[in-house]
Amino acid sequence: MVLAQGLGNSPYSAQGVGELYSPGNITNMGMGDVGISNSNPFYLNLQNPALLARRTRFTVFEVGLVGQSKTISQNISNDLKSQSNFAGNLGYLALSFPANSRWNISLSLKPYTYVNYNIQRVEAVPGTPYYAEYNYTGKGGLNKATFANGFRVTKNIYLGAEASFLFGNITNSSDARAIVSTSDIRVTHLNRANYSDIVAKVGAAWRPKLNDTWTLNFGATYDPKIRIKATQTDIYQKTSLSGQAIATPDTLRLNSNAQATLPQQMHFGASIERGNTLLFGVDVGFQKWSEYRTADNKAGNLVDAMTAAAGLEYTPKPTSNRYRDLITYRAGFQYNNLPYVAANGVQLRDINGSLGISVPLGAYYVNHVTLSIAAGQRGVLSGTQIKEQYVRFGLGFSLNDLWFRKSVID
């Protein structure tokens, strides 16, 4: 039986460092998370640091909120079991401002991964008439505080780099007991890993003009393979079924130093745009999760992953004074080969579609509120494979103003 709670509501968060949050913002979410080659002067680009240099003289502050409703289904002994849940979280806080006409800086804070699962398994003990009950739970996750820079090298070429402080903790626990009438003893193993280290990303973009109306966009980012510092604590404990301690906990290690390996990632994007009116883009990404190693330097039973996405953005008439002409509409599609492999050896897939809308607010309509929604499914009801169906919601606020500018008085 599978029970999971929290954002994502997924037993697959038990693997690796947990489920990854989308690297984009709420505007990208509405168009399939496409954002490696494309940017908009009214919004931040959190996916390719090079495109920060496309920002105008305005400073922008953004807040994103995410929520998700998910239903998990699994066939257990030819009986379909399902569970539904809803949860939400802060998606990101981000600030970007110009250092000069060619250089923009951004600061952001956002969750990177989350772990939240509760799995129970009952199995026969070989050679005996008894059964054993096993419970596995996990919670926690990692966060990223990022300092990014984007530079306009020439009229159409942009370069960028970011350094992020990755921090957080993940607690995994497992317990076992023999299901017999004379025993209520449960043996629990708790592992807690605290992570804190610096990770990096570089990006590039090229925007050649086809004519006075159309522009091509190309972009790429690279996250190198890196080992991150961790400390681990392992404790064994005997308890009763009510949770009362039966014996003194046995601490195998306390805050011992370790290192986990995060894999390299590469993302590429191409898009075509007509002014700020119409944009169509495609992104593809590759993540070498087979390179992942736990804090004990063990393989994480993950495989290489791939993401492909297409997205569309349309603003009827961005130079108009009519409000309805300034509303932006988005649509997107995403196909993912996830790093997870089911018990039958099949790699899981995630397929989803999305819609989004941004409405302008405030003086000169330079501020925006964005609503995006994505619906999809991963996994299928084959054997004991778990199927997840979800609807994800995003609400974003983008506030633009002339901050950090000295007032000039004649």
From TrEMBL:
This is Aromatic hydrocarbon degradation protein.
